[in-house]
Amino acid sequence: MDNSARDVPATSSAPLRMRSSSTRLILAQIAAIAVIVIGLLVWPALFPQEFYLHIAILVLLSIIGSVALHLVMRTGRLSLGQAAFCGLGAYTSTFLVMKVHAPFVMGFLGAIVVPGLLALAIGPVVLRLRGVYFALITFALGEVMQLLLLDAQPLTGGADGIFGIPPPAVFLNSPVAYYYFALIVTAACIGFVYALLSSQVGRALDAIGETDNLAEAAGIAASRFRVFAFVVAASMLGIEGSLFAHYLGYISPQVFGFNASLLYVAANVVGGSTSLVGPIIGSAFLVPLPEFLRGFVQYQQILYGAVLLIVVTIAPRGLVGAITGKMRLCFSRRKDGGDE
Amino acid sequence: MASSLSLVTQIAINGLALSAEYAMIALGFTLLFGILRIVNFAHGSLFMLGAMFTYEFCTVFHLPYFEALLLGALSVAALGLLLERIAYRPFYGRELQGIIATLGLAIMLQYAAVILWGQQPLSISPTPFPAVLHIAGASLPSGQLVIIVIATFLLLAFYYFTRFTKLGLALRVVAEDPEIAQAQGIHLNVVYVATFLTSVLLAALAGGLIGQQYTLTPSMGTDALIKAFIIVILGGLGSVPGSILGSVLLGLGTSTLDTLFGGNIAEVTWFVAIIVLLAVRPSGLLGRSHG
Amino acid sequence: MLNLVRTYRLLLATTVVVGLLVAPLAQASSKTAGPPPNAPTLPIGGVGPLSGGGGAWGLAVERGLQLAIDDVNSSGGLRVGGTVYRLKEVMYDDNYTGVGGATAATRLVTADGAKFIIGSIGSPPVLGMLPITQAHHVIVLSDGFASAILRKFGTYNFRVVPTTTEFAPPMAKWLREHYPAAKTVGFISPNDEIGQILVPEIVKAYQAQGFKVVFNENYARGTTDFTPLLTRMMEQKVDIFDLNSNAPGDAGLLVKQARQVGYKNLIVQTGGPGIGQVVKIAGPLANGFISYDNFDPNDVAAKHFVAEYHAKYQGVMDSYTPYMYTAAQILFEALRRANSLNANEVVSTIDHMDGYPTMFGPVQWTGQRVYGVKHQLATSFYIAKVIDGKVHVIAKI
Amino acid sequence: MTVPLLSVDRVSKRFGGLYAVRDLNIAVQRGEIVGLIGPNGAGKTTAVSLITGFVRPDEGAITFDGVDVTGRMPHRLATLGMVRTFQHTASYPSASVLENAIRGAFLVGYRGALASLVRTRAARVAAREASEYALSLLQDLDLLRFADRPAGSIPYGHQKVLGLVHALASRPRLLLLDEPAAGLNQDEVDHVRAILEKINQSGISVLVIDHNVRFISGMCKRLIVMYQGGVLAQGPAADVIKLPAVIEAYLGGMREPA
């Protein structure tokens, strides 16, 4: 795909893209972002019901995870076990707060550090694998993590999980407060990833994501950058886990299973895995989806599956791909060659 | 009866039976990957459908078991023709979308089955093979024996098919290198559809065969899929001999570990084992390592 | 062959299309007329796993509650505080996870304005629901094994299915009395809350009666071949093989395979109602199987209920369905008696409903000693035995 | 004569028992442009891969600018100024032409993860420098007009040139080119040749693999002929190509189906 379709402008190419069409496109994007930001800020006022806040919070949290996976996918690796890091974060944070009686901040930091360390330990080994092999080994890692959470009963409460996890702070007890808390953290995570991707590091990640050899030849330490992305992603998932645990007040192993890992993948594929906007849109679309289908009780799962299938069929480059495609058509006079 | 000898024979027999079941499950899965490069997340669901259709023909329409089994498998294969168009063909060579597509399909099939057959465990009754054989102090349900025999037969037939038939050879060429295959005038689409049908047929047969031994639920495919994963990783993705080796390893291993150490340990052991194996030898025990 | 193909393409196409069309209709058709058309509707929440593990239980909630609601609506609606309400079930899937339960509860409470909820079944979803319902003073009649469910969230929550704590001791006592020769016991259970929380309780009960537990193994959910575990169990020479709270499907397979590998001694099940299914799955091999059961199919009310169920739904009825139906009955009766929708008034009314007749016998609340709150439904239960393919109640406790 | 920029001493590499490269001895002098020719399967590409660290040698030593670099990672060698191109993957097909060039200039623009993340002044300056350098290269090699086209969508000849840009962008001292003119028409070949000569005049040493003897011998003072994994002959182009052994090897190499 054309680089200008990315949300990450290759800084220097700006002068070249200063064509009226592209500028309008950019303006449109800015406008869209502005609308979204304002929408997010006033959301609680528009939908004061706890339920809508609840869903919004779940969306925000899942965005952290999808964006984290996105970072890994940009380096050309698809992980089917990301939920393991989320679970590790959730249980670490819970353990520190409830067993060690540390303040939430410590639990939060623990949720960042511990999954990061795990990723740092296994990353160099597993990231040597590519394609399906990497997907499968991460799948296996996810399963192991879930089994450990299940079987380490004295530590994790086993299948029944841990309940009564306190909120991060008393004033965060109300859904509205937690919504803004989650909004801030999520925004920070997205901002961080954006900064990363639009920096030289991001350039390196995209390079190794596309062709290892060329990147290596140009002096890019492919393996090191991959591990870096993997670790950052793990820490972000830890953050999601911590926020999740202290929001819901209850965690149990099955929440961090294969389906959770797949949701991150689905968010990237359905949203579009070539730009940071993809996973965000993907999560915002997939997490609430069941709520629209709940009315169908027994049929909801069938419809959910159908939606997945249909979206990847009609929008192979993901929703964002489809949208930007449309936008570019409206905003650019010049036909763009290589854009499939 | 509990002499250590009989224990060993029992472990061996259980292991053999499991191996046969696993081989049935894994064969179609690895075939599809070997040739179409598709990780078929719906494989388990097709397995489940095979079992359900067999149940339908056997218990509801009161056909003799083997007719039911065959009819069931053919029905699922026929369904497969449709699925191939809507959920597979658009995604050949597009791994990412393929995963999500087959995943969506898997969910649809599973919960369609929930509506058609309910969530309550069904059983193919009356059990077509009630007898239990006794060998050297160990016992083997005749149903298991049937699975072992048919699995062996199918594997041999499959071997013959790939070695000595035109289509089989075409299959292998395509597996090696689609471009060369095309250059040699092989119609890829024909091979693809043939492969897909074979894979579905095998999955469905496996379902119907294994189904007569156990209970049938719409979610029975999930476990089968995970087993298939483990097996192909052990043996090597896309390698048919590998998948057989993997099945035997997993079968005998599970039987031994479960008997001597119990379920939890066994399960963790397997995943740790495949992680280590993948780390040191990604292509599995018999897989072709490709750059 | 080609014909077959076409037929099946057609068949699939139609099933899908018809299915999607019928879905909403099915919803609609479940609202039978009765109360005045202008009667205000009172939403009754239903939460249960319709997907994920334990999927069968979700239907138990949905249908049990629906049947109870049909009873009320068809007999003119529910009169509370001078107004007649038309009851309406609002059922949500909880995916058998904590977050699923929390989401379903939040939606019911804050979006649908439900003040009363039936379900869910299983600790994870229930533990996910209760913090929310508790905070909103919403009354829940549910079933989760975890003891915390009553200890920590007992105020507005009732457990309507007897747990191991209630029935394991008398069951063990009965076995001791009727099988004095038996000494050793073996367990095989899934490595979830059943293996981790329930089995230890049953073990205690057996040991209290002087039995020796010589084998206690877990298996991973989804396992279908238990012969390896059974093989080892037989090495331990167990006199009683207890299926504890294994789901009916697994229990059936365990019985079948245990007999196939040549286990000759007694097989009992302390918990996990659903003896009928065990018989269906194990066939003749189920003969001699003894199980705890609390649902007497010969009871008049029970007969009527089963008939009602099969008139409306086809297929096998999940054994939790009567419990959820009964829970709804208790709730509606409490609303009538309290003549108010105020949570606290309704709770205290339920607390004092001992004696109200149900198909499980008169209501009786217990649990003060164990959970510190009398919100555990105690039902009389039976011990049933399979004799040449038929289930016979051989004792009532 | 001074110590060579690159020297390969008795390097061997086996793949599954078979020698791909055996006792290879090559030297590239500073500022030299040398051609590496030989029949298919002679081990030319393997040699380049060994030199640039993409393949670890079984035996032997590789010295670059007096430093022993045997078995170092490719990106480390790139930082030392040794950069290669690939015969088949010339560019990042989906990234824009400009982005390709900038990625090539990574070493120019990168000042460490933290620096580039917090956008320190140094990092910003470096990044700007990198992109300006990339632009200037595109300018020089006449690719600027494609700048925001996906690299995969531009004509093959230009893609090959873009491969050169990508390699040049990291300001190498030694350039190893794997068949830069393969599959190009005569005009394009001449264009590439002109570019390579220009590159060489700018002081960059070049080692270039190619089949096209005319193309290579016209451009390189010195030729190295590989055959069956070793050096068959080397010396002034004019003489080497006349050697009967070379002709035999070549024809032999040509005869056996590749």
Description:
The complex is a heterotetramer of chains A (340), B (291), C (397) and D (258). Chain A has helices at 14-17, 20-46, 50-74, 83-99, 104-126, 131-151, 153-156, 175-198, 200-210, 212-217, 222-248, 258-271, 277-286, 289-293, 300-314, 318-331; strands at residues 162-163, 250-251. Chain A is an all-alpha fold and 340 residues long. In chain A, helix 3 runs antiparallel to helix 11 (222-248), helix 4 crosses helix 11 (222-248) and helix 9 crosses helix 11. Chain C has 397 residues and is an alpha/beta fold. Chain C has two domains: 41-162 and 298-363, 3-Layer(aba) Sandwich (Rossmann fold); 165-293 and 383-396, Response regulator (Rossmann fold), CATH 3.40.50. Chain C has helices spanning 2-29, 56-74, 98-111, 123-135, 148-151, 164-178, 193-208, 227-235, 248-260, 275-282, 300-312, 321-338, 343-351, 368-371, and strands spanning 41-48, 78-80, 83-93, 116-121, 139-143, 157-159, 184-190, 212-219, 240-242, 266-269, 290-293, 357-358, 361-362, 365-366, 376-377, 382-387, 390-396. In chain C, helix 5 (148-151) links the parallel strand 5 (139-143) and strand 6 (157-159). Chain C starts with a helix and ends with a strand. Chain D has 258 residues and is an alpha/beta fold. In chain D, helix 3 crosses helix 6 (121-140) and helix 3 packs parallel to helix 7 (156-168). Chains in contact: A-B, A-C, A-D, B-C. At the B-C interface, helix 1, helix 3, helix 4, helix 9 and helix 10 of B face helix 1, helix 2, strand 8, helix 8 and helix 9 of C.
Defining traits:
heterotetramer; B: 291 residues; mainly alpha; ABC transporter involved in vitamin B12 uptake, BtuC; two-stranded antiparallel sheet; 75% helix; globular; D: 258 residues; alpha/beta; 6-stranded mixed β-sheet; 4-stranded antiparallel β-sheet; disordered C terminus
Mind telling me the CATH class of chain B?
Answer: Mainly Alpha
- What is the subunit arrangement here? heterotetramer
Strand content of chain B: under 5%
Give the radius of gyration of chain C. Answer: 22 Å
Inertia-based shape of chain C: elongated
Instruction: Note the gap between the termini of chain B.
Output: 54 Å
Proportion of beta-strand residues of chain C: 15-25%
What topology emerges from the helices and strands here?
The complex is a heterotetramer of chains A (340), B (291), C (397) and D (258).
Chain A: H1 14-17, H2 20-46, H3 50-74, H4 83-99, H5 104-126, H6 131-151, H7 153-156, E1 162-163, H8 175-198, H9 200-210, H10 212-217, H11 222-248, E2 250-251, H12 258-271, H13 277-286, H14 289-293, H15 300-314, H16 318-331
Antiparallel strand pairs in A: 1-2
Helix pairs in contact in A: 3-8, 3-11, 3-12, 3-13, 4-5, 4-6, 4-11, 5-11, 8-9, 9-11, 12-13, 12-16, 13-16
Chain C: H1 2-29, E1 41-48, H2 56-74, E2 78-80, E3 83-93, H3 98-111, E4 116-121, H4 123-135, E5 139-143, H5 148-151, E6 157-159, H6 164-178, E7 184-190, H7 193-208, E8 212-219, H8 227-235, E9 240-242, H9 248-260, E10 266-269, H10 275-282, E11 290-293, H11 300-312, H12 321-338, H13 343-351, E12 357-358, E13 361-362, E14 365-366, H14 368-371, E15 376-377, E16 382-387, E17 390-396
Parallel strand pairs in C: 1-3, 1-4, 4-5, 5-6, 7-8, 7-9, 9-10, 10-11
Antiparallel strand pairs in C: 2-3, 11-16, 12-13, 14-15, 16-17
Chain D: E1 6-15, E2 18-28, E3 33-37, H1 44-51, E4 59-64, E5 67-68, H2 74-80, E6 82-84, H3 97-104, H4 106-109, H5 113-118, H6 121-140, H7 156-168, E7 174-178, H8 186-201, E8 205-209, H9 213-219, E9 222-227, E10 230-236, H10 237-240, H11 244-255
Helix pairs in contact in D: 3-6, 3-7
